[in-house]
Amino acid sequence: MEPTRGSASSTTSRRGVLNIKGWSAAVGANQSKIIDLLVGNAVALGAVVGAVLLLVADPIVLRMLGGLLAVAGVIGTGWLLRREVARHGELLTMHTGPRLVLLVAIAGGYLARRPDQAVWVWTATGIAMAAVLAEPTIKALLAKTQQIAVNLPGVQPVPAPPYAPNRLVAGSLATITAGSALAIVGLPGWCYLGVATLELAAALILIGYAGRATKMTRQALTALPKALKRHQPAFVVYYGGLHGARYQLGMWLPYLERLGRPFVVITREAATVPTITALTTAPVIVPRTTSELGDLSTLVVPSMKAAFYVQGSRANLHFQKFRKLTHIWLNHGDSDKQANFSPRHATYDKVLVCGQQGVERYAAHGVEIPPDRLLKVGRPQVERIEVRDEPLPADAPRTVLYAPTWRGGRPTTDYSSLGLGERIVAALLDRGVTVIFRPHPLSYADPADAGLIRRIQQLLAGDQRSTGRHHVWGEQAERDWEIADCLNNADGLITDVSSVASDNLASGKPFAMVAMRASGEDFRAEFPMARVAYLIEKDLSTLDSALSDLLGTDPLAEQRHAYRRHCLGDQLGPHAADEFLRVAGELVTGVSRPAAKGKPKQDEKISEIPLERVLFPTEPDVAELVSQETDRLAEQQRRTG
User: Fold this and answer.
1) Is the pLDDT confidence value at 292 over 60?
2) Beta carbons within 8 Å of 511's beta carbon, 6+ residues apart
3) Model pTM?
4) In whole angstroms, how far apart are CA 399 and each of 147, 404, 429, 490, 612?
């Protein structure tokens, strides 16, 4: 029977490789990238065949086939570029081969219609191809230009490009599309030449900008060290990520500004500067790792006492080597995700957690951090969340916030219920609930997840038109409103393993969690927050009962209110930030301040916190420690993009 089992195994293996999912697993790339690869190869092959048929084929049928292949190539290339835009990727030099072949195909089609326009058409084709071929040069020149410092007196900011470099690629596609249309209509070749000349002019404008910006970059690098010393920052906020700055830094910068001390933000990625400068008036600095003048060591000045970190990039280690500073881990939310108990947090001098649950979370997962380095400071961000512990009348209309998390940087950290979101939202609508929909901002980086978000938004729009219920989604829920506004306008929450669940505790309102990584008691054992949440299994078998509890009698109300202090600390409402401001102020000045009135001391034992109404089982031992943080999407995109 052994050969039979081997044969069956081989058959299963072969079948796995013959589909997208199997290929994805085999090469270690996500399915979206595999789809791009297959479509890209098909587009390139179709463009080559189309160009050949248009240039050398005599029968009209073959030329028509060549034209159809060329048009399909234009559409396919546009589709691929659009997907790259959805990932926030850089388009320069993307799919240059198919674009060049398509330009040749257009020339062939044009000459088939207007053989008398050969000079115009080939001149236009050459100019358009020159613009495409210039992209590697432009990309290399732009790599030498970089924003060095913004909002820092004495350093002139490097101006932004006259237009986004990605638009040059969009212009190339527009030239291809326009050329196709002109060829079909049979207009004179000089019309095509005019379009191609505009594309080349745009490329030359970028080249000229890059030359000027390179000179300004060198000048800014020279002026930076002295300007930093004059500014005398007391601390630095170090950011090593590429995506997520708006919410990761945005949740902490207002409180760091309230410390009343000068500081700077150092970001590893120049692309994040516009986002960060929209959040703070503090100087934002980008280290120039390829230049001695912009090396990190030149950015550490004597006045700096501390460095804060909000995102778990490996690049943090580059700054942690400066031991004269006190390195402080803040994170960008409190939850039971692996990013909240990474062993790397033990490398920081101080680790700030919300409450005793944060302390126990590290211990439960074998991460040893001395007690004097673990500081309980509450959750400042809940100061704007309104507390409402009283239940609503049974007949009162309900509004529920659905806030799924993102899929994480790798499969083991994928807690997202977004794939089930349409069915969850539909179940809420069937019960007459008004819905606030706020997906995780990083979900937009994946085209498939972005599509799921649009479907849920369309579902809400359709229900709003038919019922008149005023659902909230899109710009209002994700940009105009902060998470506190969403929670304040909701009567309940459905979320995943996410910091939104912790923030919701402050409100006192009921919430449900979708169990994507385990089920039942196993899920509650692994993720303590779920012990005071109504559980929705990933097969949605408990969706109906969970919604009945969430929208009805709320039997977990007492346990949830007791757990709130254990997770978030003592202070809620307007005083939620007091302890953080006191502790952070001491760390950046070295001057001790009295603890906020009524706050527990840092060495307070868990037995002193009244949790007798809640039964929490012992945490299971974890055999292996995680070695990577969840927020790896930025580096993953740089490697695969």
Assistant:
1) no
2) 492, 493, 494, 495, 501, 504, 533, 534, 550
3) 0.69
4) 44, 16, 10, 5, 31
